[in-house]
Design a protein that fits this description.
Length: 122
């Protein structure tokens, strides 16, 4: 029985609740499955690099890079959720993102957390 049946799911996989907290009010952790992560590395598009360079001289949001980072984070989160599902989890607790530069050619984004099985408190 998935967490969505208790009104908790979200996003593209409502059967896996993803939260940044240690617990979920009204639910108890029945099983800790362990760490799960989703990882992706995106190279920078030459056009966005040139645009970012020009924009950095005058200030303002780097919209092309922002869009790429949002897409990258979403992909990393999708992979995290898929890994949690494969391992039998219905929730991921203590969800976080880690973003680093990857050898000056792109951005590495890692979404990670603790996969668990939640059940409503009796």
């Amino acid at each position: 029985m998935g967490i969505d049946e208790y009104g908790g799911g979200q996003g593209p996989h409502p059967e896996v609740l993803v939260v940044t907290t240690n617990d979920v009010p009204g639910f108890e952790v029945r099983q800790v499955i362990g760490e799960v992560f989703g990882l992706t590395v995106r190279s920078r598009h030459l056009g966005s690099q040139i645009g970012a360079g020009l924009k950095s001289m005058i200030g303002g949001e780097l919209k092309g890079l922002t869009k790429t980072l949002v897409q990258t984070r979403n992909q990393a989160m999708e992979r995290l959720v898929e890994q949690a599902q494969v391992r039998g989890a219905n929730a991921v607790l203590m969800f976080r993102f880690d973003v680093t530069e990857a050898a000056d050619v792109g951005t590495e984004v890692c979404a990670y957390g603790t996969a668990v099985v939640l059940a409503p408190r009796a």
